[in-house]
N-methylhydantoinase B
Amino acid sequence: MTADPVLVEIVEGTLASVEMEVETAIARTARSPMIRDAHDFRAGIHDVRLRKLTGRSYSALVQPIVRDFPVEDMNPGDVFFHNDVYLSEGGIGHLPDLCVTVPVFHDGQVVAFVQAFGHHDDIGGAVPGSMPSHARSAFEEGLMVPPIKLWDRGEPNRAALTIMTRNSRMPDSLAGDLDAECSACLMGARRLGELFTRYGRAAVEACFDAIIAKTTETFRRELLSKIPEGTYVWEDYAEHDGVDPPRLHTQRITLTVDHTAAAPLLIDFTGTSPQAKGPINHAGDYADGVFLKKWLAPILRNLADTPERMAELDVNEGVVPLIEMRFPEKGTLLTPIFPAPTNARTFVILRLLGVLGGVLAKATGGRMPADQETIRYTGVYGDDHEGRPYLMREVLGGGSGGRWYADGEDTIHVVPDSRNIPVEFAESRWPFRVERLGLARDSGGPGKYRGGLGYDKHIRMLRDASFMSIADRSILSCWGVAGGRAGRPFLVTVDDVPMDGLVDDHPVKAGELIKIQTTGGGGWGSPLDRDPAEVAADVRDDKVSLESARTSYGVVFTGPDFPPGTLLEIDHPATTELRGRLRGRSPDAFFDRGPGYLRLSDGHPDVDLP
């Protein structure tokens, strides 16, 4: 059936509206700070052919549900649940990500699915939060649940819910979050069913085909056409796995571009390091890499003609036919063998975004942003003033990379729509005081276009507690590109004592101060080409120090010292002379990985790959 173009717009808008309504319902009814306040959850809509129809955000997969539960046996009011990493077909990365799936019915048949998954406070395991940084096995990470029917014809499976809440240190918030997610998806399924009732199944499914085909054609014509044919290689690294001493855990992409092929992009992960002993592995080689294709595809949007056009482009199942993936043999960081631990898989899956960005930068002569922050979890746990256990865990963002046309953004969150926990809420709920929440000066990589800045957050503990952290980029930096410099890495101190990136239970005494500085993005272009007036504005705004203005940007100001907020006067002759001297010291490298790379590579400089 040919899709009516007007109806396509109506259906596309309805899908986006239903997805937003599901997420809004979850945010307003969930109980845990991670879901309700930090918004670390996602919703998605899929058709009966398991294709993702919405593109505002990523989501998990329906494949594991229909694999274990035939579509013809499903009933209205059913809710399916899973969080098992190795039985999720690559859609779930670690056990705290709990996923619920609800079938949509029309005339007694399944016609679509509404799905939500989010990061929950605690699902058992060796440490509070279910993310033991030194885990050697998935069995240490919490309760693994393969696909099950959690609700049957509208009736919750109380036995399954009791087992899950019994295994959680935060049973009330877990039960409340699951109820919110199940109810929201059931509501979304009713809304979507109304669309089929109004227009008929054949017309709506024709619109689904048109929506996906439009994405395929748009990406092929507007984005992939910008990449010259050829083969390009780039790699980046995770720095530690929580078990072995810090070293370079390689993630490599060999990108082959052939515009005459059915799938113009071939992404080969050969050269990726063996699976780690610790929990940084990601099970990505399932379902032909369908999840990874949709996960990585947003990076391609940076090739759009304008930032405005980039913001208009959604990523749905239409990107899948454009990408072929080749995985190495079983037993690597991307192809781990059960029961390899995975709770810190962000070290790999988020690094891959930067690896693809780097290989595209090589292919396009630098027309890609520099490297950006990756997710990290920091928090404290203990007993509150009334002796009740609590867990505060936060997903703080960092800086994005400088772009060929603009600076990077400050304190962005790589998980779409996620955010820091409001100070007022935190102080009223947990026994600590937030003494500072601002920008980490000098954290953004210097460049013609500066990298975005990370957070600078200070927490004063009012009771004894334990500090926890799951964070990479504490040694390695976000790399700069096209002559830009690397950003500053992640840093946490407790009472001025530096912490490792992976910490489970460092004791913090009442009165001690936790200082958190998150990662800054890499810079783009030589910092000696940055407009001195923009450097002066950064110094005035306390984003760049006077020392960095001189040593990194070669900008000299008149007068001995200036407090933040002062209008600065540039000494133009001295600036010209200093920049000339700085240019002569060493040529700009296309990539700058920062000093942490030399530490982990035993002093060997980065060698560009072919």
Notes: The chain has three domains: 5-218, 369-526, 529-587. The chain has a mean pLDDT of 94.
